[in-house]
Amino acid sequence: GLIRVAGSDVYNYSVVIETHPDGDSLVDQEQIDHRVAVWGSWLTQRGLDEGIRGASVTIESSPDSGLRLANLLEANRTDSSPDYARAVTDRIGETYQSGAPQLVARVSVTFDGRRHDGKTGDRGWAEMAEEIGTRLPGLVGGLQGTGAGAVRACTAQQITDFTRVAYDPTVASLVEQMQADGGTDLHWEDAGPSFAQDSFEHYRHDRAVSKSWTMYTGPEGHFTSSSLKRVLEPSPGLLRKRVTLLYRPIPAERTTALVQQEQNDAAFAGSQTRRNARASLRQAAAAKTASEEAQGAGLTRFGLVITITGTSEEDLKVWDKRIPGLLGPARLRIRPALANQAVTFQAGLPLGLVLPDHMLIPDTLREFF
Hints:
By secondary structure, the protein is an alpha+beta fold. It has 13 helices and eleven strands. Helix 8 (252-272) runs antiparallel to helix 9.
């Protein structure tokens, strides 16, 4: 499946990759560190690749409908099985029919579709499909060793289906059953909401209500492999919870200048205030970043979007303080996306939307000032 998003002189094409992470249970720290290193290398390579506008990782949790378990038990049932075996499998189906959490992880990568000959315009579906198709095996293969488990690119039908469920989670079990029976036959035009209302603090879409938060302060300290563990865990009582990490790799030709600028800023900030641990840590971090960049490491801007979905606004009120509290170990700060709930909801979906490309003030001009 290939997603095209066009704007004012913006032509972005995105692919979505579905993964099945192994988790960190019974995995020693050495192996976890290796997975983190491989993931860092994957992000670094995106900065070296030409035409990559951004990437995202979305972890979505929801209650399991139990249909997959029921279908699995039914498919493996035989008439010649012992009575005891049939009783056990029936009991399993009744006991674990619902309530178990379901976790889905998806990675999206967005490519720049603008022409290379200096003229404005779009390179077109055919040319972009050929280029992305050539580079897709490398993207998928690079995720091996990160703990992503089984990896495969999503089809257009799969993208349409999970987008429809995101806008109306109440049809999740129906969509899952139709997929098991041969397919939903939904079209992209049917994926969006039939009713939507963007309020100041909430976003109502079809028969659900969502609220989103965005990161506005990065981690103030060490960020480890388990820093986001609490916020990624399933939250009972919600129809959906999505945690999306947004990445914008910085081209390799710009990393050296940015690293040097950060070293200068850290040194200047330390000289203007009394010597303290935070200023020392910033200077040490800047020096370490410069050393790693000189050895070939890349730089990547990142952001975080957290979206929760319930049946009513009252269901979401209890999460106003609970969601920010889940990020305590990560030591980063989030705030509600006030008056931008609909846009932030879309940015949190694994559809490859790179928001800076669609701002009224171009991102390059914002960086200049």
